[in-house]
C-alpha cells in the first residue's frame, strides 16, 4: 500500500462483543473517542494510568447500557504494559480494535520512564509496541490498530521520515 493511501474500509459493527481498547481515555482526544464509540454501543476497555478518572468516565459512558471496563495501564512502565496485555489474554479478551492514543510531550528537561528510557519515546512508542506485541497475532482479520501521532518531529532539523530507510514514519496525525 502506498504510504499516503488510507486503509481500505473494513466493516465494523457495534454489535461485536469484542471490546475496543483505548489508551489514555481519561482526557482530551481519548475521552472524546471513548464518548463517540460508547454512543454507538461499542464495548470499551479504558486503559488508564489514572484508574479513578477512568472509573468516573466509565460510569458516565455506561449509563446507556454500553459495557465499559477500566484496567490499569502505565505505558511508562513496561512491567505494567506487559501485565496489561497478559491479563487481557488470561481473561480471554481479544480486542476488535486498539486505539493507541495516550501520549506525552516533554519540553522542559529530560524525563525518564520507570525503565530509564526517555519518557516521550517510552510512553508514546515503546509502551504501545510492547502492549500490541502479544495481542496482534490473536486479533481476528478486520481488527484495527489505530495510532495517534504528532507532526512535531517535522520541526526538528535533520529528523525526517524520508531519511529513514524505507521512508515511512511510524505514525502521522
Ligand atoms: N491535542 C493535539 O493537538 C494533538 C496533536 C497531535 C497529536 N496528538 C496526539 O494525540 C494523542 C492524544 O492527545 P491529547 O491532546 O488528547 O492528550 P492529553 O489530553 O494530554 O491526554 C493524554 C492521555 O494520555 C494519558 N497518559 C499519559 N501518560 C501515560 C502513561 N504513562 N500511561 C498511560 N496513559 C498515559 C493521560 O493519562 P492521565 O490522565 O493519567 O494523565 C491522558 O489520558 C497523543 O498521542 C498526542 O500525541 C494530539
Explained architecture:
- The chain is of the alpha/beta class.
- It has a single domain (20-149), classed as Rossmann fold (3-Layer(aba) Sandwich), CATH 3.40.50.720.
- Helix content is 31%, strand content 13%.
- It has four helices and five strands.
- It has helices spanning 28-39, 51-61, 78-90, 119-136, and strands at residues 20-23, 44-48, 68-72, 97-100, 144-147.
- A five-stranded parallel sheet has the order 3-2-1-4-5, sandwiched between helices.
- Helix 1 (28-39) links the parallel strand 1 and strand 2.
- Helix 3 (78-90) runs parallel beside helix 4.
- The site of NADP nicotinamide-adenine-dinucleotide phosphate has 23 residues, from helix 1 and helix 4.
Cα distance spanning the termini: 18 Å
Bound molecules: NADP nicotinamide-adenine-dinucleotide phosphate
- How many helices in DSSP terms? 4
* Helicity level: 25-40%
Q: Given the helix and strand composition, which structural class is it?
A: alpha/beta
One letter per element, helices H and strands E, the order comes to: EHEHEHEHE
The unreliable regions are 167-173
Shape: globular
Give the C-level CATH assignment.
Alpha Beta
The appropriate CATH architecture is 3-Layer(aba) Sandwich
Residue fraction in strands:
5-15%
In the CATH hierarchy, what is the superfamily? NAD(P)-binding Rossmann-like Domain
User: The CATH topology, please?
Assistant: Rossmann fold
